[in-house]
Amino acid sequence: MQRALITSLCLLILAWLALTASTWGIVVWQSKVFVSQSHGRPAISCTYFDGTALFQRGYLYSPDDRVGYARCPMWAPAMPL
Fold first, then answer.
1. pLDDT more than 70, % of the chain
2. How high is the pLDDT of residue 81?
């Protein structure tokens, strides 16, 4: 039991370090589909974690993945400062 807990903790720390060192983020959650005020089309808002902070991306929504996305991509590049 204790060995499994220590192994899990080590894997979690390694995953966090890998996210911190990379320029990518992993999806944490996504919003429901809403109509974007800037261009009047359906959109989804995705929140990502890059190891140190949360950041958001907006994507056009398309239920069939032709013009936009049906759901948030699992990985997204973080914006450079």
1. 98
2. 52
